[in-house]
Amino acid sequence: MLERIKLFLNKFDSQPEHPAPVDFATALGALMVEVMRADNDIAPDELKMITKLLQQHCQLSADNSDLICSKAQQLVNEAIDLHRFVKVVNDNTSEEARIEVIELLWMVAFADGKLDPQEDYTVRKLAGLMYVAHGDFIAAKLNVKNVLGLPD
């Protein structure tokens, strides 16, 4: 019994104190995955949207986009919070680019044809962490609804 406890405790000692850094595409993917997971329903349309957006905005092949999406899902499952991913996005984008990121998050939220209140909350929270003004947050939402042809 004591040996099992020692093995268990040693496992914690061998884990790195700081998680490995993530690249921009993975961080962006992680934020989109968080929006997708917010309603506790991983819709196939949302997954397709994430891989499509990663391809378009990070210049990735379809295979690499799928790999990044899978890696992002794993990292979000293991993460305590999202600050690690938000920091990478904030450090690598301008104010205008962060507004575009919010639009991408809205695209994921609306991908399944409905907006769950938890998805709305998650995009709102991420917009705050990315220092996107409330007016820009609302404008991004309306812009995406217009592009997708959704009613106001």
TrEMBL record:
Domain of life (superkingdom): Bacteria
SUPFAM superfamilies (alphabetical): TerB-like
Stretches assigned to the Co-chaperone DjlA N-terminal domain: 26-141
Name by which UniProt lists this protein: Co-chaperone DjlA N-terminal domain-containing protein
